[in-house]
Design brief:
Chain lengths: 234, 296
């Protein structure tokens, strides 16, 4: 579904991604793990078009992704839940969800998807006319995910959904990620919480300073000595 | 006592009509700042162009007020978009000071380019409205003042509706809050910025026509002082905040009217700026501003 081949990305003079290649297949949950600055968020931003690869090839369902402007990527069926949630804090919960469906015109379909989001996140329904800036961190994460679902994505990119959340909320969010996947959305997940990420993912890649150093079945990686030492605390 | 109250109400009426023009100009400043964080110093000059467009429409083409207003708004909107595309867009990722200096350059270009085109001579607006004066309980309402006030209120209402409920408005709010997040939703940021310039400039063009009608005379440098005052109004209300610009404009207009009414009309600009300074000392983000922590 999504294939990256030897992708290089720079921030000015800084070589952030040094030729990474990986793929995500339809229906999977794939996770990129690694420490701070390894290039996880950079990878997601490159896929969603916010950053441009200087070299390499990116395709989605066989279509070239590297050259289309970021506002058109979502129309292809890829939607991103950005790091730090980035909800529109000055808009209500409902308006945020509407923004998620910005490019859609099927009113009844949108309505149905709002209901679906409220089923996944009943808290959002309670707060639908509340301004997003007044929500708690966990609720904002839910809103960011709900907003991303509103574009009816085939592939959802999740950037650090556990960041800054209490353990019980992290568990809840990951359960919902599994649920969203079970309902048919493919997921590419970036996480520092490697333990959680490996527990829900089918496959995983380990990033270190802009390169993929390991890849394989999530279960195998979770059991491997190297990963345990470096990312799972023993 | 009755006399004082009557005087007070009369100045309030004058202040509101002048203030509503300031508000119209201030809205453009504030919208553009909200979306590209640029103080568009050429904005007052777009208003001047609007005044000339209205003048051409009424004197040369012999149109009546409404078509002239509409014409001025449409052409000003196109001018605003062109200014953005040609002068500001190439500098979008440059330092803010570069964009600011460019804005001053565009302002001078419009002022002196305008002089070249229509000469520096003062032109007189034709009497667009009948000289009717309504006397309501001793307070004089000039026909023109009423039309001005109504026009401004209608335009502000339209703007409010556009920003709150239409797709363009929603994308404007989204882009001004978080450009990258808006991109991820599929919002076309370039088009949204163009639309913002178009709407702001259309309001300035309308203000220009009203200004011409109000003061009767227009010249290529007429945009400077009202432009500055509208900027003050925008900052007073909290730059980037639309209701702030409306209230800031009205406060400024009322202040000027009251100071003039007290017989100190030479002091009115000084008092207006004094109020700005006081507000900024007490509340640096303006009347409607929120304290926003810079995100890292």
């Amino acid at each position: 579904m999504l294939v990256l081949e030897d992708v290089h990305v720079y921030y000015g003079a800084i070589h952030a991604l040094k030729g990474i290649s990986f793929q995500v297949n339809q229906g999977e949950i794939v996770t990129l793990i690694g420490s701070n600055g390894a290039g996880k968020s950079t990878s997601l931003k490159t896929i969603s078009g916010l950053l441009r690869p200087k070299q390499g090839k990116m395709t989605f369902n066989g279509e070239d992704l590297g050259s289309i402007p970021p506002q058109n990527v979502v129309a292809k069926g890829i939607s991103q839940v950005p790091e730090g949630r980035r909800v529109f804090a000055n808009m209500t919960v409902m308006e945020n969800l509407d923004m998620g469906a910005f490019l859609r015109k099927d009113k009844s379909g949108i309505k149905k998807d709002v209901e679906r989001v409220f089923e996944l996140f009943p808290r959002l329904k309670e707060r639908k006319s509340q301004v997003a800036g007044t929500l708690s961190g966990g609720e904002q994460q839910m809103l960011a995910m709900g907003r991303a679902l509103m574009s009816k994505p085939q592939l959802m990119l999740l950037d650090e959904p556990s960041m800054g959340l209490a353990p019980i909320l992290v568990k809840q969010i990951f359960d919902i990620i599994k649920e969203i996947n079970a309902q048919g959305t493919t997921i590419l997940l970036v996480e520092q919480n490697a333990h959680m990420a490996l527990s829900v993912a089918n496959r995983a890649y380990v990033l270190e300073t802009g390169k993929i150093v390991l890849g394989g079945e999530a279960k195998e990686l979770a059991a491997s000595e190297e990963v345990r030492k470096a990312y799972l605390g023993g | 006592m009755g006399h004082i109250l009557q005087q007070f109400s009369q100045q309030a009426v004058n202040g509101l009509s002048l203030g509503s023009i300031y508000a119209l100009i201030a809205l453009g400043y504030t919208m553009v700042y909200g979306i590209v964080k640029l103080i568009n110093f050429a904005h007052g000059d777009v208003m001047m162009v609007g005044a000339y467009l209205g003048w051409i429409a009424t004197t040369q083409l012999h149109w009546s007020f409404l078509p002239a207003l509409f014409f001025a708004m449409v052409v000003s909107a196109i001018l605003g978009m062109l200014i953005e595309r040609i002068a500001y867009k190439p500098l979008r990722n440059a330092s803010r000071i570069a964009a600011l200096i460019t804005a001053i350059g565009v302002s001078l270009f419009l002022e002196y380019g305008g002089m070249l085109l229509v000469t520096a001579q003062v032109q007189t607006y034709p009497p667009v409205f009948p000289e009717t004066v309504y006397n309501v309980a001793g307070i004089m309402f000039k026909y023109g003042d009423v039309v001005m006030l109504v026009t401004s209120v209608v335009l502000m209402f339209l703007l409010h509706f556009t920003v709150q409920y239409t797709k363009v408005g929603k994308s404007m709010r989204a882009v001004s809050f978080d450009k990258d997040a808006a991109l991820l939703m599929g919002v076309n940021v370039n088009n949204t910025i163009s639309a913002t310039f178009a709407i702001g400039s259309a309001l300035a063009g309308a203000a220009g026509v009203l200004m011409g009608v109000y003061f009767n005379t227009i010249d290529p440098l007429m945009g400077i002082i009202p432009g500055l005052k509208a900027f003050v109004a925008a900052v007073l209300g909290g730059i980037g905040i639309i209701p702030g610009a409306m209230v800031g404009g009205l406060v400024l207009g009322l202040t000027e009217a009251f100071v003039s009414g007290l017989g100190a009309s030479t002091w009115r600009d000084a008092v207006a700026f004094l109020i700005l300074i006081l507000v900024l000392i007490i509340k640096p983000t303006g009347l409607f501003g929120k304290n926003v922590r810079e995100k890292v």
